[in-house]
Amino acid sequence: MRNPLRETWVAGDCTYGVGITAASPATAQLLAHAGFDWLMLDLEHGAISPEGLHAMIAATAGTPAAPIVRIPHPLPWLAKTALDLGAFGIVFPTVNSADDTRAAVAACRYPPVGTRQWGPFHAPARFGLSMPDYLATADIVTIVLVEHPSAIDAIEEIVAVPGVDAAVIGTHDLAVALGRPGQPDHPDVAAAVARAESAIRRSPVVLGGNAFSAAQAREMVGRGYQLVALGFDWTLLQSAARGLLDCVR
User: Fold this and answer.
1) What confidence score (pLDDT) does residue 90 get?
2) Which of 8, 48, 92, 166 would you label with 227, given CA atoms 20 to 30 Å apart?
3) Is 186 labeled as catalytic in the residue annotation?
C-alpha cells in the first residue's frame, strides 16, 4: 500500500490540508469530503481524546483526505496510539536535531528498521488491508516540524536522516523562539526561514509550511513547497462567520 501523500510528492505536486483541533468526527468528515489531501488531527494544541481520534480517523474513510496526527511532544512512544488507530502519518513537533529525527523515523516503522511495537488492531481497517498486509506494506509518512533556532542550526543534519519524508517550517513558533512573537515577517525570522527552505529544497525531503491566504499559498508553491497548510478548523469557521456577518451588517 503506497501512501497517497507520498504518491503526490513523488509526482512533484503539492498537497493541501488543514488542521483540526476540535474533537469532532463530523468536522473531520465534512472537511475530508471537501477535497483536502490531508487533515492534521492536532493532539498538540487540540482537545482530542484517543476515542475521538479513532472516530475522526475513521470519518475520513472513502475520501481523498489522508489522516495525519500531530502528537503533543517529539516523544516516539506518543506516536504509537495514533498509528494503531490508523494514522497515515505522524507530525513530530519541535524536532531540533538529527537524533530527534532518527527517533521520529524509527517510531513510524516496525523492527528491524524501526522501534514501533505491535498492536495495529484498528489501523488495517482504515488502510483497507488485512493485518498481515498492513504489517508488511503500510506506508507511513514521517513529518518533522522545524520551529526552533536549534532546528535551523541543525537543518542540514535533520534533512539528511534517511526516512524523514517532510519538514514543515513553523514560522509562528520560530518567531516566538527568536523573541519576535507575532512577527513571522520580522527580518530575523525571515532569515531563519530562508536558511531552512534552502537546505530542505537541496534535500530529498518535502518542504512544508503554513499559508495564511490563497495568494501566499500560490507563492509558496512557486518556491517549491509541496505540503501547504491552509489553516485550522477554527480559522475556517471564524472566517466564514465573520464574512457572513460583514455581508449582512
Assistant:
1) 98
2) 48
3) no
In CATH, what number is assigned to the domain containing residue 96?
3.20.20.60
Helix (H) or strand (E) holding 45: none
Per-residue pLDDT of 181-211, as tens digits, reads: 999 999 999 999 999 999 999 999 999 999 9
Asked if 115 contacts 107 with a C-beta cutoff of 8 angstroms, the reply is yes
Cα–Cα distances in angstroms (integers) from residue 63 to residues 18, 32, 37, 175, 177, in the given order: 15, 6, 9, 35, 37
User: Which residues neighbour 145 within 8 Å (Cβ) at sequence distance 6 or greater?
Assistant: 70, 91, 92, 93, 94, 95, 167, 168, 170, 173
Do the Cβ atoms of 44 and 66 come closer than 8 Å?
A: no
The answer to whether the beta carbons of residues 52 and 23 sit under 8 Å apart is yes
Per the residue annotation, which of 45, 73, 122, 172 is the catalytic one?
Answer: 45
Total domains in the fold of the chain: 1
